[in-house]
Amino acid sequence: MEDPHPPPPHKPVLYHEIINALAPFSGGLYIDGTLGAGGHASGILHASTPDGKLLGLDLDPQALVIANQRLSPFKDRVFIRQGSYVDMASFVKEIGWFFVDGIILDLGVSSIQLDTKERGFSFLHDAPLDMRFGDQTNINAASLVNSLAESDLANIIWKYGEEKFSRKIARLICQNRPISTTFELANLVKKAYGNQHSQIHPATRTFQAIRIAVNQEMQAIETVIPQAIHLLKPGGKLAIISFHSLEDRIVKSIFRTESKDCICPAEQPICTCKHIKSIKEINRKPIEASSEEISNNPRARSAKLRIAEKLNLA
Ligand SMILES: C[S@@+](CC[C@H](N)C(=O)[O-])C[C@H]1O[C@@H](n2cnc3c(N)ncnc32)[C@H](O)[C@@H]1O
Predict the structure, then answer these.
(1) CB atoms within 10 A of CB 98
(2) Of 8, 34, 191, 275, which has the most beta carbons under 10 Å away?
(3) pLDDT of 7 higher than 80
(4) Using CA atoms, how far apart are residues 108 and 117, in angstroms rounded to an integer?
(5) Where is 161: in which H helix or E strand?
């Protein structure tokens, strides 16, 4: 018999830590910029009963169907839109809000996306090479690997995958184009590795790099953080979970800059930048998942949570 209450397909990472960080209250306004299956969003709405409201954004129409269903009990307290978090200010305006009390970004790919074979995110399933989070762009993994110059491809695989065989992999890709499936790409990476031992599947880093490039993930993070800070009310919190050292580096660097009054070079005796701090970092060291959470959800292993609080800029 089919389970009438199947487990949700994506376990939200650092769930309690996010709810503690945002401390949602009734009447509060919240944004989940990476709604996914709505796990964090549902917690925020529960904690802000009876009157907190949430705007949920995701690029992925498949995730939005699941989130819509899961969040339907909250009725008119939820606003769900398909779109990028880089456009969150426009969505906030569209629903008639001005400033909000909390924002969460849980970056990267969801288990639903990884496990849906046809999405082409996983080297474990043979499928067309796609890897797009949403359907609003035509550039997918196949078009990228089949059109980029070998040196650009090698740079992407090195920069976003920290893959030591990036040049060899890029060369093999270019020699074997066109490449249209996940298995074709994974087999080329395996060939580049030859007999070299790897603790993880050899294609892990290359697939991660191509996915980051397809979805322009780093550029999106750089764009959204200043916008999110601007949208917060004084005392409002921005909580960001990253899964990759490059993501965390961007979050850390912007949080550090925005929590300082002067960002002139240290050797400059007089400030000329006139930069004014807009946030306070709640935790200088990122919060990581407990060993208990990691054993229940291995995806939590690389999660890092940074939290910032908007200052009163009066
Ligand atoms: C790790 S999952 C979020 C899971 C969610 N917190 C939950 O509890 O189910 C990340 C989600 O962010 C979405 N995403 C990635 N980049 C995005 C962007 N620029 N704008 C909006 N959503 C994005 C992905 O499609 C994916 O559904």
Answers:
(1) 9
(2) 34
(3) no
(4) 17
(5) helix 150-161
Tell me the per-residue pLDDT of 69-116, one tens digit each, with 9 for 90 and over.
999 999 999 999 999 999 999 999 999 999 999 999 999 899 999 999
User: In angstroms, what CA-CA distances link 121 with 32, 183, 233, 247?
Assistant: 23, 11, 37, 19
Q: Which whole-number Å values give the CA distances from 169 to 45, 151, 193, 217, in the listed order?
A: 46, 11, 9, 22
pTM of the model: 0.95
* Three-class secondary structure assignment of 25-58: CCCCEEEECCCCCCHHHHHHHHHCCCCCEEEEEE
Confidence band (pLDDT; 50, 70, 90) for 198? confident
For ligand 1, atom 18, name the residue with the nearest CA: 84
DSSP-derived secondary structure letter, 244: S
**pLDDT tens for residues 42-62?**
999 999 999 999 999 999 999
Query: Other CB atoms closer than 10 Å to residue 80's CB: what's the count?
Result: 19
Ligand 1, CB within 6 Å, residue ranges: 10, 12, 33-34, 36-40, 57-60, 63, 84-86, 106, 108, 110, 133, 215, 220
